[in-house]
Write a structure and sequence with these properties.
This protein is of the alpha+beta class. Helices cover about 40% and strands about 20% of the residues. Among the domains are: about 1-80, no CATH class; about 230-375, no CATH class. The chain is built from 20 helices and 20 strands. Strands 1-2-3-4-5-6-7-8-9-10-11-12-13-14-15 form a 15-stranded antiparallel β-sheet. It is globular and about 110 Å long. It comes from Suricata suricatta (Meerkat).
């Protein structure tokens, strides 16, 4: 611990060669309202850390050379804004999500929040991105310097769609159309909208198209069902009646469907200012399983593919748990699934679509909706803590998915892939056996096990994968492991000193949360590889029980906890630092459960994944090195072969020259000068007899 004598600055944490290095916390004022806690590298903020500014604004994420760099979340509490995504040298760069929170307009059914999700360049919206307006409108397309520019699609609140070119934040086809105004305008206020259209000289046809007054839907212009795909499956003469009857069926159940949508959308989310939430695919999966949709011989993965084919969903988003689902989209999905499940049963009866939807409501939705099953959303406190492991678990899930052999060739995980993953992680042992693995997967899945055989070709969506991990945690972590870890933490807590910076750490720790039972969420480690992290975090939280707080908004599941899971655990400690006896059994069970989750995810699963990734990187590096060495060897061999070939050619040339020299010497006309000089025979010339006589005379001599 270091206290500056001239400035109200104090630091507690790790050191190396006289410099802040490792894990540590620094406070920049006496009140403890301005601080940083996280990783240090020789006096610079580098790694993962949380920075709370005097204004109350908070950044949590990665740092490099004292600036925000990498993945991180910044919350401007004073401006009611939030950004989560990539940073480069202190500014937003890369993919991210920026939200602007607004006050709720009376009688609005939409959460009042503008949100952009897409590419950033130097702090501005630039590239491809989606903008969700507070009114319910949505733009998906190209951006240039914070303005819609290029090709894009604008979906209005009533479900109407404009698809075309934009220039300088305006529709190219209608340059007088103020898109920003339309996006914030409540189109249900017909008089104000028509007055504005009159002032801007918008034609009556365009007006009817935009405000939905030309719609014949019995649900009104606020909710426009997209039935074109389903109606095309019926004869043209029956389409009008099919549409009218199914809209009446939805209208009769609209109040209950709204309630169901709101209920499932709020699961695992923080409190919002207007108590309104947006449903994600993770919530939708839980709704489908609770209502037993998957008992109709169709898996959740199959349902995702059915909906993607009907709604032009990109391949990479088919199984994404973070995809947003509006109320109108929720209703369309129910109709499409109702048709997919029951259309064969009612194909010879009319109105067929009406009968399909009615049977689904009667047999599946009404008896089961709201009775939450599974291990993720069953208890609010556990849900909030479990959400801190969502991001890293999604990373692991996608790393072990395989592309499907049939279209649309999206990535999916089968049960055998899941089992192989745990085997690679060395987590299949005497506690978590293959038999128990199958039992957990088959608990609420009729396709997994029939009592004799197990189906390892079954596809798992992320919800099923993550809930299985939560169940595996309770199996893998024994009571003895939990008790040993608690005893270790209790024995290693530092003593309490009044007025010490440790008090400031504790005070600060109880003010930085953003959710209900925020101390439980603050229980996620900034670095799962840190061994000291949990001890430090427990020491600063030991005086206070978790406090219930409200965040600024209903964050999406994808943003619930950017910080790496396992920042520490919440336990209940008395004023003198001793472990406080639990007041009731549920509280004690929660503490044990939190400990089990921490041990499983932070000390077992995540390190195993990191070890496997490191091993894969090492194998890949070795493969690249081996390939490079083989390439070098091939080049050397080629060079050596070329040299040998050259030497062989040179030797052959010399041999041929030597043979030619020997041949020339043997010719009689190349004899020494003492010999008789003779001319070589000419072609077609007969050698005269005199030659023989001369030679014979020489012999006689």
């Amino acid at each position: 611990m270091f206290k500056c004598g001239t400035h109200p600055v104090s630091y507690i944490g790790h050191w190396c060669h006289g410099k802040r290095h490792g894990k540590g916390s620094i406070y920049y004022n006496q009140e403890g309202t301005s601080w940083y806690e996280g990783d240090w590298v020789y006096n610079t903020k580098s790694g993962w850390g949380v920075r709370c500014y005097k204004s109350g604004n908070i950044y949590e994420g990665h740092w490099e050379n004292n600036v925000r760099h990498g993945e991180g979340r910044m919350r401007w509490l004073t401006a009611s804004e939030e950004y989560m995504g990539r940073w480069e040298k202190g500014v937003q760069n890369g993919f991210g999500t920026h939200s602007w929170f607004l006050k709720r307009i009376p009688h609005s059914q939409y959460p009042l929040r503008n949100e952009y999700m897409g590419q950033f360049v130097n702090g501005v919206r630039h590239g491809r991105g989606k903008f969700y307006y507070a009114s319910g409108a949505m733009y998906d397309g190209e951006w240039v310097s914070n303005k819609k520019h290029g090709m894009g699609r604008l979906t209005f609140k009533n479900g109407r769609v404009y698809d075309g070119a934009f220039s300088n934040d305006h529709v190219v086809e209608f340059p007088n159309l103020e898109i920003e105004f339309l996006s914030h305008l409540d189109l249900s206020e017909e008089s104000s909208f028509r007055d504005w259209c009159h002032r801007t000289s918008i034609s009556p046809e365009i007006t009817r198209k935009l405000d939905g007054t030309g719609s014949t839907s019995v649900l009104g212009s606020g909710i426009e069902l997209n039935l074109s795909f389903l109606l095309n499956k019926y004869p043209e003469k029956d389409q009008a009646e099919e549409k009218k009857q199914v809209e009446y069926a939805v209208l009769r159940n609209i109040t209950e469907l709204r309630r169901i949508y709101s209920f499932y959308s709020s699961l695992g989310c923080d409190c919002s200012l207007d108590n309104t939430f947006l449903m994600t695919k993770l919530h939708f999966w839980r709704f489908l399983k609770d209502c037993r949709f998957h008992h109709h011989n169709v898996t959740l993965a199959d349902m995702d593919r059915v909906l993607s084919a009907n709604n032009d969903i990109p391949v990479e988003e088919i199984h994404s748990p973070f995809t947003t689902i509006f109320l109108r989209t929720f209703l369309n999905y129910l109709l499409q699934l109702a048709y997919h499940i029951h259309h064969k049963e009612f194909q010879n009866r009319s109105p067929s679509l009406f009968l399909c939807f009615t049977k689904l409501m009667t047999e599946n939705i009404q008896p089961n909706a709201g009775y939450v099953k599974g291990s993720l959303f069953s208890e609010q406190q556990r849900t909030l803590y479990s959400m801190s492991y969502i991001s890293k678990s999604w990373e692991i899930y996608t790393a072990y998915c395989r592309p499907r052999a049939t279209p649309p060739h999206e990535l999916s995980m089968k049960v055998r892939h899941f089992l192989w993953m745990l085997k690679d992680f060395k987590m299949i042992n005497k506690e978590l056996t293959p038999v128990k693995f199958v039992e957990v997967i088959a608990e609420d899945n009729p396709f997994m096990h029939d009592g004799i055989d197990s189906n390892f070709e079954l596809e798992l969506v992320f919800l099923e994968f993550f809930e299985a991990l939560l169940s595996f945690a309770l199996i893998s972590v024994t009571d003895q492991m939990t008790k040993s870890y608690l005893n270790f933490l209790n024995d290693n807590l530092p003593g309490d000193k009044h007025g010490s910076p440790d008090q400031n750490i504790q005070d600060r720790g109880s003010s930085g949360g953003t959710s209900q039972e925020s101390d439980l969420q603050d229980g996620s480690t900034k670095s799962s590889s840190s061994k000291l992290g949990p001890v430090l975090d427990l020491s600063k939280m030991r005086r206070a029980k978790p406090k219930i707080r409200k965040s600024l908004s209903d964050e999406r599941i994808s943003k619930l906890n950017l910080k790496s899971p396992g920042k520490g655990l919440t336990f209940f400690w008395s004023q003198n630092g001793e472990k406080e006896k639990s007041k009731d059994e549920p509280e004690e069970k929660l503490t044990v459960w939190v400990t089990s989750m921490y041990i499983f995810f932070v000390t077992m699963l995540f390190p195993a994944h990191k070890r496997e990734e490191t091993l894969k990187e090492k194998v890949e590096q070795d493969r690249l090195h081996a390939a490079a060495a083989a390439q070098r060897q091939r080049l050397e061999n080629q060079e050596l072969e070329a040299r040998l070939s050259s030497l062989r050619e040179e030797g052959e040339t010399r041999r041929q020259d030597a043979e030619a020299d020997v041949t020339v010497i043997k010719e009689p006309w190349d004899a020494p000068s003492s010999s008789v000089t003779m001319s070589p025979p000419k072609e077609d010339t007969v050698v005269p007899q005199t030659t023989k006589s001369v030679m014979s005379k020489k012999k006689k001599k």
